[in-house]
Amino acid sequence: MQRRNMSMSGVVDLSAVKAAGEAKEKAEQARARSAEQGGAGGPVSLVIDVDEASFEAEVLQRSAEVPVVIDFWAEWCEPCKQLSPVLERVTREYAGRVLLAKIDADQNQMLMQQFGVQGIPAVFAVVAGQALPLFQGAAPEAQIRQTLDQLVQVSEERFGITGLQGVADEGAEQEPQAPAEPENPALAAAQEALDTGDLNGAVQAYQNVLSDDPGNTEARVGLAMAELLGRVQGLDAQQVRKEAADAPSDVEAQLRAADLDMAGGHVEDAFGRLVETVKRTAGDDRETARVRLLELFEVIGAEDPRVVTARSALARVLF
């Protein structure tokens, strides 16, 4: 979906010489303690569940030794169900250069407020106690890897934090070996295309799945996401927003702006813009705006509270 790419220039205090110096010192101390205890080469949990009670120990303290990536998720969030497994797999492949802390957004509202989370999935990092916004929404795997590479580089160059080198993941070892479920080749091909940024291929592959299984929720969400990403590719965000502001009755301008809102993680803004467009239009224009709104509902998932609220607002303007 909609992504805010990680911007190193926007990270609070990351460039501060004093903060970097203190972080390097803490990292050296953490590595020294690890060496005294026999090194960090044994099994550790690279993917952990964190709540408000364990946040300081599991995230803040660990961030002096290894970058901690935070995944805000919820059970009802369909994009979360697509993003989280990719984050977990990639984290394990990084073999201790990063840790992944999973935070249930519904159960940890205080942390949501502290990080300023407005929509999920939302991904942050903590390095030496400093918070970095990474991206929001279900990003393709290629972008996730690029972002983590930047995070590892910044952590090492500015803070001297090199992570837990060469560790094994005890969580992966403890997972029971469940019988392999038959994989839908078309769905696997669609997900791979989406992860690698082949949006046209992803759209076609998801459509292939839905032609055989119209009720496949994963395929519906994936198709809506791929189509959204395809629509916003190459758009000049500043120009799109100017056109939408200058011509509130221009339906196409409002559709483009709503897509950008959604792609940037501003879900309520996207829904609100289209509800207002439906309200002020009639005939084919109204139907076009209504259909686009329903398509964006698919990206988030029917159970998302923001979708429920927007559906009610849509019903009020229609009837």
TrEMBL record:
The source's superkingdom equals Bacteria
Read off the Pfam families from this record.
Answer: Thioredoxin (PF00085), TPR_20 (PF14561)
Protein keywords: Disulfide bond, Electron transport, Redox-active center, Transport
**Any one GO CC term of the record:** cytoplasm
Tell me which Gene3D superfamilies the record gives: Glutaredoxin (3.40.30.10), Tetratricopeptide repeat domain (1.25.40.10)
Give the GO biological process terms: response to stress
Single GO molecular-function term?
protein-disulfide reductase activity
Specify the Thioredoxin domain's residue ranges.
21-153
What PROSITE patterns does the annotation carry? Answer: THIOREDOXIN_1, THIOREDOXIN_2
**InterPro entries given in the database record:** Thioredoxin-like_sf, Thioredoxin_CS, Thioredoxin_domain, TPR-like_helical_dom_sf
Hey, which family's this protein in? Answer: Belongs to the thioredoxin family.
Q: Which PANTHER family match?
A: GEO12009P1
Entry protein name: Thioredoxin
Q: Which organism is it from?
A: Streptomyces nanshensis
